[in-house]
């Protein structure tokens, strides 16, 4: 275990003076003789004395630190959001500590409790896939700790949020595929309860309807969030006689699965099968052919979330009102859908 | 700002009893009448009273949290190391908080101070590229806080470390290229002061010597850690009359630069130019052709670092000795070097 840190009491004992004299000498209080002040300060330096920061925090109730809970640390989207948060926090002279829920609700609760125990000045959080109840979120609110949610949020929570306009983004991606000549667009998505999935589904359907195209529910495939599962789902779709000529996927992982399946069947991308993913993961650019995707501007998401949080922490007028900031996604047309 | 949390004093005032009675009632001390105990506990629940965790930490000097400082959060290597650390921390019921130095020494110092202020029970750290002095590391030692370094370390520091055997890894990669028929192997590396670069250079030269090949210093190219810079360096090398027939790069970024350059010049990979990278980044697998690379087993690095740290925190016999754990890298032969 750690050596016990040097305290004011240690200094007082060593110099045979009172604790309150040491305390005042360290603050350079002129009531204390210059000689004593110098002796105290010299010894404090020698012993590497540091004011106990927990005691300081206990007094001021400020840690100058914000806590960020992300569903995964191994994700370029969340990593870039954290970068955006750090940029704003740097300006305010705040530290950012990150913890990951690993997509588990139980771990998310632990992360939140850990941050509350550490008296973070504010918390920014994106819900895990497994999070279905919100007691831990309510606890942050009950304790009056400023909080902002981003990306994965819930309609049930009365908290300021930074969200993507998922419906508009999906609408843009699917419209682009239709304008490139696609007639049968498959949609690879995840479990039904996920809000962003439902919103992207809305955009997908709206784009089809607008162009007078029929919605064929057999082209909508739900899979796990793995390349392997998406590949299998895509193989199944592509082996049908009336196979899809385009894929829109809810994330890049699933889009990579679709591209892998098309390649395996010897289908040309984008000529026979066009593909658009979602989230502009690093690998999307280096796929062969390079993969079209939606750039969600994660750094901006992070910056907006941090700005909302600092507004609350600084108690700006209206900062307590529940706000929703929408960060738009941009369509990045690369080779996989250029036709 | 946060609402002031409810304290024992608030409860005492509301019930018109003493603070020490409330304190003992909350601990269910039988010296206090059952009636009072029940009244206190009921009110504490209603007011959502929580023992002040900073006060608790102040007493026990334990936060059940370990802090991890990484040079970058946007990196699959560091993200995977963090996952490994989390796996071990989970077993011990500890939280993991991560902060990023963004490759800046100043930020690394702030991260360390932040963690020390928060009274982390231990710190795991990988040095930033810019770190050239070590006062902040010495401070962790002076305060007696358990610490382990990984990956980017320094010979100047007397601290337990988890390191890669970089020389052996580079030796394996270059030997593989020679055995595939390469006669002129370029080495893309970074600035000279970086320890891991020097070690990989050693392995590169040793492999060449062992096979009786001459070391041509003009084939060693130092570049920034960007795809763009590596591409330009590679273009220059490949345009020479006696161009290299293989590249070994100090990381996957630089190897991608080499592949991009070869493709731009219409050279066939691996037939005319073979490439091996380093660190098994996510995108390496999805390159076309898929890229050979060294897998540094980052999760194992994280697990070993966490194990060393918990040994120190639990004060196991010999845990204070400076240890060095070597995690070996595995060569992943993919298409870019298979010939």
Describe the structure.
The structure is a homodimer of 339-residue chains. The first copy, chain A, contains 13 helices and twelve strands. With 339 residues, chain A is α/β, with parallel strands linked by helices. The first copy, chain A, folds into three domains: 8-51, 434 Repressor (Amino-terminal Domain) (Orthogonal Bundle); 65-164 and 298-329, Response regulator (Rossmann fold, 3-Layer(aba) Sandwich); 166-296, Response regulator (Rossmann fold). The radius of gyration of chain A is 27 Å and the shape is elongated. At the A-B interface, helix 4, helix 5, strand 2, helix 6 and helix 12 of A face helix 4, helix 5, strand 2, helix 6 and helix 12 of B.
Q: What's the gist of this structure?
A:
The structure is a homodimer. With about 350 residues, chain A is an alpha/beta fold.
Return the average pLDDT of chain A rounded to an integer.
91
Overall spatial form of chain A: elongated
The ordered H/E elements of chain A are HHHHEHEHEHEEHEHEHEHEHEHEE
- Largest protein interface, residues of each chain: A-B, 58 and 58 residues
- CATH fold title of the largest domain in chain A: Rossmann fold
Q: What CATH architecture of the largest domain in chain A do you see?
A: 3-Layer(aba) Sandwich
Q: Report strand order across the widest sheet of chain A.
A: 2-1-3-4-5-11
Largest sheet of chain A: 6 strands, parallel
User: What share of the residues of chain A does DSSP label as strand, in percent?
Assistant: 5-15%
Oligomeric state of this protein? homodimer
**Beginning-to-end CA distance, first to last residue of chain A:** 64 Å
**Percent of residues in helices of chain A:** 40-55%
The overall strand count of chain A is: 12
pLDDT < 50 runs, ≥5 residues of chain A: none
Number of domains of chain A: 3
In CATH terms, the superfamily of the largest domain in chain A is Response regulator
InterPro entries (chains A, B): HTH_LacI, Lambda_DNA-bd_dom_sf, Peripla_BP/Lac1_sug-bd_dom, Peripla_BP_I, RNA_pol_sigma_54
GO molecular function, one term (chains A, B): transcription cis-regulatory region binding
Protein name (chains A, B): LacI family transcriptional regulator
Keywords (chains A, B): DNA-binding, Transcription, Transcription regulation
């Amino acid at each position: 275990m750690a050596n016990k840190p040097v305290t004011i009491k240690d200094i007082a004992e060593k110099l045979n003076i009172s604790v309150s004299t040491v305390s005042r000498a360290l603050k350079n209080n002129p009531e204390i003789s210059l000689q004593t002040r110098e002796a105290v300060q010299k010894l404090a330096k020698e012993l590497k004395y540091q004011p106990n920061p927990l005691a300081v925090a206990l007094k001021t109730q400020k840690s100058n630190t914000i806590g960020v809970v992300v569903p995964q640390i191994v994700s370029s989207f969340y990593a870039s959001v954290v970068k955006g948060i750090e940029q704003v926090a740097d300006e305010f002279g705040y530290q950012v500590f990150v913890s990951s829920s690993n997509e588990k609700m139980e771990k998310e609760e632990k992360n939140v409790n850990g941050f509350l125990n550490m008296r973070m000045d504010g918390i920014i959080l994106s819900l895990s896939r497994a999070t279905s109840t919100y007691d831990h979120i309510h606890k942050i609110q009950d304790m009056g700790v400023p909080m902002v949610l981003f990306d994965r949020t819930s309609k049930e929570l009365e908290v300021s949020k930074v969200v993507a306009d998922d419906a508009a983004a999906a609408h843009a991606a699917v419209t682009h595929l239709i304008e490139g000549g696609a007639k049968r667009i498959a949609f690879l998505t995840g479990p039904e309860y996920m809000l962003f999935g439902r919103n992207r589904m809305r955009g997908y359907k709206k784009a089809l309807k607008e162009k007078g195209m029929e919605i064929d529910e057999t082209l909508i495939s739900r899979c796990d969030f793995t390349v392997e599962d998406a590949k299998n789902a895509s193989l199944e779709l592509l082996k049908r006689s009336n196979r899809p000529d385009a894929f829109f996927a809810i994330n890049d992982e699933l889009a990579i699965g679709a591209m892998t399946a098309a390649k395996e069947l010897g289908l040309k991308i984008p000529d026979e099968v066009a593909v658009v993913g979602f989230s502009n993961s690093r690998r999307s650019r280096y796929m062969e052919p390079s993969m079209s995707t939606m750039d969600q501007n994660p750094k901006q998401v992070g910056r907006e979330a941090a700005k909302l949080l600092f507004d609350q922490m600084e108690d700006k007028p209206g900062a307590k009102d529940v706000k929703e900031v929408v960060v738009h996604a941009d369509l990045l047309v690369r080779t996989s859908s250029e036709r």
